[in-house]
Every structure is written in structure tokens, then in C-alpha cells.
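Batch 3, record 17
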Amino acid sequence: MAGRLNDFLVVFISIVLQSLPFVLVGVLASSLVHQYLSSELVARWMPRRRLPAIALAAAFGFVVPVCDCGVIPLARRLIAKGVPVYAALTLLVAAPVINPVVLLSTGFAFQGNLGVVGLRAAMTLSVAVAVGLLASMLVHEARPRLPTLASGLWAEDPDKRDGSRGLGAVVGHASAEYFDVVFYVVLGALFTATTQTFVPRGDLMSLGAHPVGSVATLMPVATVLSICSEADAFVARAFATTFSLGAVLAFMAIGQIVDLRNGLLLVRTLGWRLVALIALVAYPLILLEGIAINRLAGQ
Amino acid sequence: MIHLLRAAALLGISVLIVKLFATGQMALYMSPSLDPLTALTGVASGCLGLWELRAAVRRRAEHEPLSLDHALTVGLVLVPVALGLITTPRALDSSALGGQDLSRLVLAYPSPPGTSGVRPLTSAEAPDIFSFLRQAGGAGMGQQVRAVGMVAHSSSLQPGQFVLLRYSIVHCVADARPIGVLVLGDASAWQADEWVEVRGTLDVHEQDGEYLVALRASSLAATDEPANPYLPPI
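Prediction for the assembled complex:
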């Protein structure tokens, strides 16, 4: 098999294989929420004021061990259960990075450098809170009309069904939602494998040391590479010898918020408006933070 | 029909995972550290597939509408499954470097290395260079080591030098990172991407203020691609 075609195939299939367990965990969590978390309970526990609600959503991110694949169905389900969109968006942005598994893997990759771990978490949290605050001002509907997924028929709302409960209902729903999600994971894997294989990375390295150019260069690279949040720190560490500290941190922050692999699923789940909001907040904010870190680090 | 299609896709995923484990090809896609998780995914997919098959049998009398969306979704999911089942891939080689300069991928010591602090090696067999570097770090100059990798040539290297190329992965091939070891020895007779075993002594090569890990070759021989061609993170 020709070199490039072989590279494309192994990257494509490996992204799908790697995503499947996390998608399964995500849809199972979503199905459990779907079946057992009532809208009334959510209404009772969710703070009415936006700042405490955003803070609670961000704090929830610390304890939910889901990656960027798994958090999307969970956030979508929480919105359907009455969690305000701005709080769900805060969780969506924060959880893939600030959960303990990812923070530990970041610490491991950077040989216990707590500064890198803390800055990564802080950059992600800043975007999560900013997105949450802006969404709370811009999205006025309590439960906005979200796009119906391709197989919406498979993901019917159980509140309107015949009251089926228990393991059977959870499995049935998880299976249906699995296909909603995995369709976009496969599509994203196709795009990611194509760009990883056919877009040359060599020229990018020449911009590595520039305090602004290095940050602006590595951010789209992270979006294109779409590496899982539990693995990206190890790739980022490889960049650390060539790129500035701010660029490496920006790579780890933006890659879990705006990435090609999950972009299509996110658009299908939340709609263009909310995804554009996330991207328009995340890109400039992380760029500025990366540049500021370079300045403070004297790079 | 919907349940039957879903069952086919889920059981297909399960069969693909079984095939990759049975043939040893899983190591070409995923880190062995994720094997338990991948195996669990295969089991879970199989169970879900059987669940869907049961639903299909129970509802065979019902005429569920099959939309284009359903067919497209399952069809797309079956693409990687079919590709994984029918193809026999190779490990990533130099074509995956994407134009990156080889000399910038070579392992380097953070500071001038020395010979102190090396753990005494009891084995008569020369240790693998990557394992040894993990243990000894910047110590151990002069240690006899062996290294297996792909031959990589570059115009940025001096005559009598080549790079032994490997990739390290954390989770899967999508996060592969190229790693090179500078070999001081002649490999002009070898084609790029050929797998070779180099034996020699661990050395350092100072270049542009950097202390590159170097292997002063005493022998060079062709070898098979390892069962797991990827290294854990270094």
C-alpha cells in the first residue's frame, strides 16, 4: 500500500478505535441522565442566578471524567433536562480538560510541572466562564430549539414515551444515541486523517520561536490534529523544544475546545450560532493569553 | 430493519476488534496500554449488537421506516469497520513526517552527559537504547547498546551519519511523535524506511550548541519490523 494512503488509513481507523470507548461512556452517562435525572430535580438543584450556575457547571467539570467526545452527548442531554444552555456550555468547554485524568496526564507529560498544569486549567476555565457568561446574555430561551440529530427518531424523548424504565431503556437509548454521535466521530476522523496525512507540518516549525506567530501557528494545528485531551499533552511536550511556552499552552487549551474531529458533531448538536460563539470567544482569548504568557516568561 | 442495520454495525465493530487482537494488528493502531479498554469496547459493542439483533427479531412484524439518514449513518460507521477488516496496514514510516526536518527530531540531552550514576547492567545482552536512556538519562556514555528502527537519510546530516527513526504514541497513531537517534555509521547502502538493528556504543554529538544522543555503530543488520513498532512516550 502506498505510503500516504497507508498513513491515512491507520490514522483514520485509529482515531475511530480510540474514540469508541469514550463515546460509549458518554452515551451511557447521557442515557442514565435521560432516564433517571428528572427535570424537576435539575430545576431544584440548579442555581437560579447565572454566576453560581456557571460556577457549579465549571466545578462539575473537575469531577466528570469525560473527554471531548463523551461530554457532547452529556451536555446535550443536560440542556434537554432543563440545565440552562450557558451552564451546559461551561461544562462542555471545561470538563474535557479540567477533569482529574487529564490534569494528571498533563502533569506526567511535563514531568510534574505544576505551572503548566495550572496554566492549562486556568486558560480552559477562562474560556469556559467567558462562553458561559456571553451565552447567558445572548441566549434568552430557557430551552432553545436545538438541532435534531440525523437519527432523531432514534433519540426520542423518554418523557413522552410509555414510561419504560430500567436497564433495558438505558441500553436501548444508549444504542440509539451512540449512532447519533459516532456518525460525526467517523466523519471528523475522516477530515482529521486527511489533514494530518496530506497537510505538511514541516513549514510550521520555522515560526516556533516568535512570541505571537508561534501561538497563532500552533492553535490551528491543534484544531486540525484533534488529539484526545488525555493524549495531547504528550504531543504538546514534543513541541515545547521548538515552540514558545505560550504556544504550547494555547495548543493544549484550544485543541479541546475547537477541534475538527468533534466540530461537526458540535454543530449538529448545538447549532451554528452556539458553536460560532464558542469559537469566537475561545480563539482570541486563548491567543491573547498565550501571547501574555510569552511576555511574562520573557519569550 | 433499523435494528438489523445497527446490529450489523455494532457486531462489525466487535468483529474488527477481535480480528485486530487475533492478528496482532492492534499494535499498528493503538498503544498496548489501551488494550483492556479496547477489548472492553469490543465486548460492549458485541453486547449492544446482540441487543439490537434481539430487538430486530422481536419487531420483525413491524414495518419500521428506514430513512436515508439511518442508512447513511450505519453506512458511514461501516466504512472504518470494512477498511480495518480487509486491509493489512504497515507501521508509519518517513512519509508521515510531513516535511519535518529530521535533524530537529533527533533525541538530545538537556545538558552535557557524563558517565557517572549508571546502574550496573547484569545482563550480558546490550540493552535497548530507549530503555537504557529512560533508566540512565544523561549518564552512561560508552555503554554498549542496540537500537531497532527505520533508516532515514537527510541532506542536513553529515556523510557517515543517518537517523534511526521510530514513532512514539500515547493512545493511538493519530498522536504519533517521530523520534530519531543519530547514528554515526555508514548506511548509504540501505534504503530509507528499511528496518535495521544497530549495535554500538552510546555517545554524544555536539551540534549547534545541542548535545545529540548518538549511537556509534559497530554493526548494522536488517531486521523485521517489531510486533509493536511504536514506542511508549519518551
